[in-house]
Design goal:
By secondary structure, the protein is an alpha/beta fold. The chain has seven helices and 30 strands.
Amino acid sequence: MVLSMDGVVLVAGEGTRLRPLTFTVPKPLIPIMGRPLISYGLRGLVSGGVDNIVFVIGHLGGYFIDYFGDGSSIGVRVSYVTQERRLGIAHAIYRAIESGAVKESFVVYLGDNYFGNDIGFIIRSFAGSDHDVYIVLTKTKDPSKFGYVLLRDGKVYKLIEKPRDPPPGGYTLSGLYMFRDPDLVARAFKDLKPSWRGEYEITDLIQWFIDRDYSVGYSIVTGWWKDAGSPSDLLELLYLMLDKVDERIEGEVRGEVIGRAVIEKGAVIEGRIVGPAYIGRGAYISRDAIIEHYVDVESGSRILGGSLTRSLVLEEVEINASRARIVDSIIGRSSKVMLGNGSYSIITGDYSRIIQGA
């Protein structure tokens, strides 16, 4: 039986490392393969038994209200709490609790995270356990960018926030946390002090439970996990997701498709596609265009010439790259790119214009 749980989804950040894209769209709402990034995590929460979600919003928070409304489109109840000042993850969690929206055991999900594992299974495992807190651990190339967790005799005993010199043998704390009692979490938060960064850290919140001998369980994920914080992180996430796609062609192919590709309804392909690749609804790939490996062209975009590889093209973009090659790029919504020749790596915000020679 799937037990009912509350969900707290944190989306208040400004996404500064993804500017200029995040000047006009919140990072969790950036589409990948036809769906906002956050929707993949929400699907996992729902499968784990979450039927009530509170979004903690801030920067461009109205976009989440417009997109999800009362939650009926995703089959859950949704409410919203504003974090006026970005005072850290623990503070955002406390805001959700003090609002009254969280009344039972709950799971916290960072809206810009993506798990290759089934997080629904992890949530259900916590719900059926006797742990007071449950965290998800992984290995990363650079653990100094995240919370760091040390184990001793199979138990969590110490958490460090963004260590400059991480001790060997530890794990990275991912963006998925579970708590049994919201009242106890609120009590713990009131004992915390801001870190040197001026924030209330999630690592300090969890350490509070460890220091008082509460049961803190954990899972170590063996699949991949991505925090899509920067352009390179977002593109790497795209590559990993495209590696898992199964071929599905529902659009019209007049040209050539080689390898695994998803061609959505209404898309027209007159050029060449070399998968893995995703072509969204109503997109158009002309006979003078080549879509190479690891490209996502979102709905309504038109590629009129040139070649693209390892790139994300958002909605309603027009690209005519002629004899040019676009590599490792992210093109914001409704942008126009016109190039003559050469090789380019481009990161643009929405409604941008890049016209060679203009």
